[in-house]
Amino acid sequence: MTIYYNEMVDGGLVREPYAMLSDWIETMPAEIRQMKQAEAEALFRRIGITFAVYGEGGDPDRLIPFDMMPRVFLQGEWRRLERGIKQRARGLNAFLRDVYGRGEIVRAGRIPAPLVYRNAAYEKAVVGFVPPRGVFSHIVGIDIVRTGRDEFHVLEDNCRTPSGVSYMLENREIMMRMFPALFRNNRIEPVDQYPELLRRTLASVAPAKCEGEPTVVILTPGHYNSAYYEHSFLANLMGVELVEGSDLFVDGGFVYMRTTQGPKRVDVIYRRIDDQFLDPLCFRRDSMLGVPGLMDVWRSGGVSIASAPGAGVADDKAVYTFVPEMIRFYLGEEPILNNVQTWTLWKDDDYRYVMANLKDLVVKEVHGSGGYGMLIGPRATKAEIEAFAERIKADPGNYIAQPTLALSTSPTFVDEGVAPRHVDLRPFCLCGDRIELVPGGLTRVALREGSLVVNSSQGGGVKDTWVLSE
Q: Closest Cα partner for 64 from 35, 43, 89, 78?
């Protein structure tokens, strides 16, 4: 039987981070809890916090489930996580600078060349170009799991357009509205400075040709995108324009935005669309979402794009296995946060081991996301395992495998009261002229009893993440 680390109760005693919440939980009547839960859902609906799930019929926009019970970290726990997250972001950006340049890590034999240069996320159009301050990935979302009191592991890296920061901010706002006494009586680090930090980070990577205060915009694919709420939410909080590709045009080596006062030059584009749709003259010719000529302007230093095209090669799940080596190679340091043990199925020995142990492992597509394209062996039927095995045999290099993790549990409000549910954490690390992050992140929770899948599209929810001040 797998034993899971309970973040609230250890050895029969309530752990220090949760001590101040113990009475709050025990003294809250069920009817008050239900009323507050309904109030939270009403606030989410009024604000418009939804996510989209397509292909299942009916209205794709759904409220994301919100758990009122916060997840809590001590300041010392957070400091270690913060150091490890910043270190990892530095290593990932060093890797991106290198593989689009001289490729020293490949030349040194520390990572296989095909894994980089034949990777679907590697963009040849980026080779030889170094963006301002050498930063390729400006917002790095690092998914972290806990397996013990002092045991934290990185599950995966998100270097392109990590989503979820709007939930982090709205979770805190709603908790402060509903339970102001909790915040008056406890020293909880704030997260509301994130939009200002993001704007400052983006402004700090404006191109050298920028004149005066940089003009920053958020480029969205439009309101049908699953994360559109977040795009508009951040634009509003940052005080910048939310634009679609049709709102921008290229002229004379610069990018301009159409406004009622006439064209306005744009210096930094925080893009929330995939590489292949950015510029129909460089990538997909049928793209209606991007800006024709954008890549030429970017390469000539007329505009900055965050995160840079091609950054996705750093968050490929097979490349992920080499991030500790990147940290050693580029930074000369030992990783503060370790990876989860991972088998890469393009290696013969790993392939044989995984195929012989599918029932005990979690297998993921290298480019999969959202909890799709994966097999959780211990929860799968014999028929599901056999079917997935055939998919692996057809393309072994498209998969990695990991052990079934003993994800920690956090106390969660359920119909019966409070029960442990599995959680992970996605902090958002900002990389510009400095590397910084707010104390907290998005905690995702597997609301279904026994489930290890925290993705909202797979029945997961979110909760506020507290870091206690000293």
A: 43
Both tokens assigned to 167:
């939930």
Query: What architecture (CATH level 2) is domain 208-302?
Result: 3-Layer(aba) Sandwich (3.40)
| Distance separating alpha carbons of residues 83 and 77, to the nearest angstrom | 10
Domain boundaries, given as residue ranges, for the chain: 9-207+303-336+406-467, 208-302, 341-403
Distance in angstroms (rounded) separating the CA atoms of residues 267 and 277:
20
Joined together, the tokens standing for residue 68 give 């009122």
Rounded (10°) angle between helices 194-204 and 228-238: 80
Q: What is the pTM of this model?
A: 0.93
pLDDT tens sequence across 120-173: 999 999 999 999 999 999 999 999 999 998 899 999 999 999 999 999 999 999
CA 94 to CA 337: how far, in whole Å?
17
Residue 162 vs residues 140, 356, 376, 428: alpha-carbon distances, Å: 7, 34, 24, 8
Single-letter amino acid code for the residue at 264 = K
* Buried-state track 50-65, b at ≥16 Cβ within 10 A, e below 16: bbbbeeeeeeeeebbb
CA distance 139 to 141: 6
Q: Which fold has domain 341-403?
A: Dna Ligase; domain 1 (3.30.1490)
